[in-house]
Design a protein that fits this description.
By secondary structure, this protein is an alpha/beta fold. It contains 12 helices and 7 strands. The protein is globular, with a radius of gyration of 20 Å.
């Protein structure tokens, strides 16, 4: 059996490569150093030991990074908060990171038990042409069903302003603006407005974005050197109270089966997710897809 240290270090290095690819030099550097720290039995090892038995899709490195960022956002670790804001010397940032872990081992061991909640509203740019195409093709109001909805922010996608070269959609005055570059040709003839009949989601651990605790949870999982994402998320959280959304605490497969058991007349039902598939077991994914095919 592979040693616990090797398993944890491997997962941290996998996340290091992912962060590099997705544009977070800060988190890429911290994950690489954290892997070395695990091998040396430093504070990262003290926080993560015992989690090597978890499946890889549990996103343990992101849970660790989110837990430390939560301490920074709460004001409990001002040194790491200052390093994140400064964005300077990686070595100094690692020293502050490691020191924060050493001071908060027990608190962080509790916080890393929480699931990742990355309710990234920027993903709505990829969902938008699908929503608009269905609305245009059917002429019906949309019944939105989101799997892995987190705080339900992506269920409020029509309240955000989308801007790309030669394309704009959404309310001009929206504080949540999503600038993007489409890959390929943008669909033609999409409706300028849509009617939303209902918004409903499920999640293993729903978050209420209208509460201080819920907002803190969401922001803590955004990579702090990607400031545009942080600002966009805060703007979406600010809009959440204007558009009530129900998010049930339930697994994806059983929830979808229950929602689709009886068709709803006069509405176009859309089942969607933005990034939940990687967290589903093979068994649950197979059951979920079976329910979709049956419906």
């Amino acid at each position: 059996m592979e040693a616990a240290e090797a398993i944890l270090a491997s997962r941290l290095r996998f996340q290091e490569r992912a962060c590099e690819r997705l544009g977070s030099a800060l988190y890429a550097d911290l994950c690489g150093r954290a892997a070395e720290d695990v091998e040396a039995h430093g504070p990262v090892w003290e926080v993560l030991r015992g989690h090597e038995r978890e499946p890889a899709e549990s996103a343990l490195p992101l849970r660790l990074l989110g837990a430390v960022n939560r301490l920074a956002l709460e004001g409990r670790e001002p040194a790491i908060a200052a390093r994140y804001a400064d964005g300077g010397d990686p070595g100094a940032t690692w020293q502050a990171f490691a020191a924060a872990l050493a001071r908060n081992v027990e608190a962080l061991r509790e916080l890393v038990e929480l699931p990742v909640q990355t309710n990234e509203v920027g993903r709505c740019a990829a969902l938008l042409p699908g929503f608009l195409s269905v609305a245009g093709a059917t002429g019906l109001p949309l019944r939105l069903l989101e799997v892995g909805a987190s705080a339900g922010l992506n269920l409020r996608w029509d309240r955000y302003a989308y801007r790309a070269k030669g394309f704009s959609w959404g309310p001009d005055g929206s504080p949540a603006r999503i600038d993007f570059e489409p890959r390929g040709d943008w669909p033609k003839g999409l409706p300028e407005r849509v009617a939303i009949a209902s918004r409903h989601g499920c999640d293993a651990a729903p978050v209420d974005p209208t509460t201080p605790e819920g907002a803190l949870t969401l922001v803590s999982y955004v990579w702090p050197d990607q400031r545009q994402r942080v600002e966009r998320l805060r703007a979406a959280i600010g809009l959440a109270a204007e558009v009530p959304v129900a998010v049930d605490r339930e697994n994806a497969a059983s929830w979808v089966e229950r929602q689709l058991r009886e068709p709803v007349a006069g509405q176009a039902t859309i089942v969607f997710h933005s990034l939940v598939a990687q967290y589903l077991s093979d068994e649950e994914a197979a059951v979920l897809h079976g329910h979709l095919r049956e419906a």
